[in-house]
Design a protein that fits this description.
The protein has three domains: 47 residues, SH3 type barrels, CATH 2.30.30; 209 residues, L-asparaginase, N-terminal domain (Rossmann fold), CATH 3.40.50.1170; 120 residues, Rossmann fold (3-Layer(aba) Sandwich), CATH 3.40.50. The strands form six sheets. It has an eight-stranded mixed sheet with strand order 9-6-10-12-13-14-17-18, with helices on both faces. A five-stranded antiparallel sheet has the order 4-3-2-1-5, with no helix packed on it. Strands 20-21-22-23 form a four-stranded parallel sheet, with helices on both faces. Helix content is 21%, strand content 24%. Helix 2 crosses helix 3 and helix 3 runs parallel beside helix 8.
């Protein structure tokens, strides 16, 4: 009996027995199965001995999800944008697929009905987070503002994890007068795996959105590898630090705002902007598209800056070394950044230096090469992450081209993106 996609197959490869669900294979002469632990494994068809094939059942059609409102619970809104968290097991294919409608999220996590009720559920787009653009940020900012101003206690945004911290930073600047929780949440593991983290992250985010006194944009994700608690992390002081770990999001030059447990237990860890349900938030969505991040590295030829100058870019964030260094006194003049930076500044391009060390801050006054750059008008971004500096600069350039106003705003704390109390040690404090 020839196995088909969705069938449960048992077979031997040598002396070892395997069992799993047949999933699509890119090669006709190969078979791929999904094991019970969620991992996939493949073999040449002529290398295995089939023991049995259990034919797939007709897949159940998930036609409609009803989520009954509980008037005794806080009313929040959910915006689904895609990513691993917005997927569910496809039992026909033995894999996962994106949700066809955002309401399906309750199919995966019915416990949400015990924590909050939903004023509105929407999905303005479904996109992998690596494909996010400024246009996506603008759509989200407007939709979040609409939901909060319509009376929602808070908003949850489900999002892919690859660029989750970019979006949290963008919304932190774009949502002016924000005083309710906007919780961005994702999943590192897909729902076909026993280690799926999306449900716990969603439940924890629901407590924060509906019941906490936090009034800013945050990321809510696993605090450690086990299912102990979730961290509540400021949207401008957080970064994805591991490609696969469930506790990948860590505070940078800051500490977690709070811990939130599955039972709703809340542990405040540091100060944050307090909730004010009476404030009206407005989306200030102007972003300058002609901005970029450039990473300095040994043997870097800075004439790449000419490309950005000639293409009409308005702002550049440089991931500089350590305290904010780039080569100035070099064996070969072609590796010196002095002339390219001078040309860029003469063309009116704003240049911002952030440290690629991530932890710590830049300082142009320790070594001479820093002073050279500062005197040419380079703006040193304190302890801001390069990604945050990039989005902040894009937002500021969307409103002004005046250098002194740009510098003043870049060095002003708009969304707690600058920490003036870094001392070194755990979490950069």
């Amino acid at each position: 009996m020839q196995p088909e996609v969705g069938d449960i197959i048992k077979f031997k490869k040598g002396k070892i027995k395997y069992e799993g669900i047949v999933i699509p294979s890119p090669k006709k002469d190969s078979i791929i199965i999904k094991l019970s632990n969620g991992y996939n494994i493949g073999f040449k068809k002529d290398s295995i001995e089939i023991i049995s094939v259990e034919k797939k059942e007709k897949p159940k059609i998930f036609s409609e999800v009803k989520f009954e409102k509980n008037k005794g619970l806080p009313e929040i809104s959910l915006i689904s944008t895609g990513g691993t968290i917005a997927s569910r097991v496809d039992y026909e294919a033995g894999g996962v697929r994106w949700l066809m409608k955002p309401e399906e999220i309750f199919f995966m996590t019915p416990e949400l009905s015990n924590v909050v009720t939903f004023k509105n559920i929407s999905s303005p787009f479904q996109i992998a987070s690596e494909s996010m653009t400024f246009e996506c940020y603008k759509i989200l900012a407007k939709e979040v503002a609409n939901e909060l101003n319509a009376g929602s206690k808070g908003v949850i945004i489900t999002h892919g994890t690859d660029t989750l911290h970019y979006t949290s930073a963008a919304l932190s600047f774009m949502l002016q007068n924000l005083s309710k929780p906007v919780c961005l949440v994702g999943a590192q593991r897909s729902p076909d795996r026993g280690s799926f983290d999306g449900s716990m992250n969603l439940i924890c985010a629901s407590y924060i959105a509906g019941q906490s006194d936090i009034g800013e944009a945050v990321i809510v994700m696993h605090g450690e590898m086990s299912d102990t608690y979730c961290n509540v992390l400021r949207g401008t002081k957080v970064r994805k630090m591991h490609s696969t770990r469930r506790d990948t999001f860590r505070p940078i030059n800051s500490s977690s705002l709070a811990k939130i447990y599955m039972n709703g237990k809340f542990e405040k860890l540091s100060d944050y902007k307090m909730r004010n349900d009476d404030n009206e938030v407005y989306p200030d969505i102007e972003l300058e598209e002609k901005t970029a991040i450039i990473k300095a590295y040994p043997n870097f030829n800075p004439d790449i800056l000419d490309y950005y100058i000639d293409k009409g870019y308005k702002g550049l964030v440089i991931e500089a070394f350590a305290l904010g260094h780039v080569p100035t006194n070099t064996i070969n003049d072609k590796f010196s950044w002095i002339d390219p930076v001078k040309r860029a500044r003469d063309e009116g391009i704003i240049i911002v230096f952030a440290t690629q060390c991530l932890f710590g801050r830049v300082n142009p006054f320790v070594y001479s090469n820093g002073r050279i750059m500062e005197e040419m008008g380079v703006i040193y971004a304190e302890d801001m992450l390069p990604e945050v500096a990039y989005l902040k600069l894009s937002w500021i350039l969307g409103h002004t081209n005046d250098y002194f106003e740009i510098k003043r705003n870049m060095l002003s704390n708009m969304a707690n993106e600058i920490n003036y109390r870094i001392k070194g040690g755990k979490d950069g404090l």
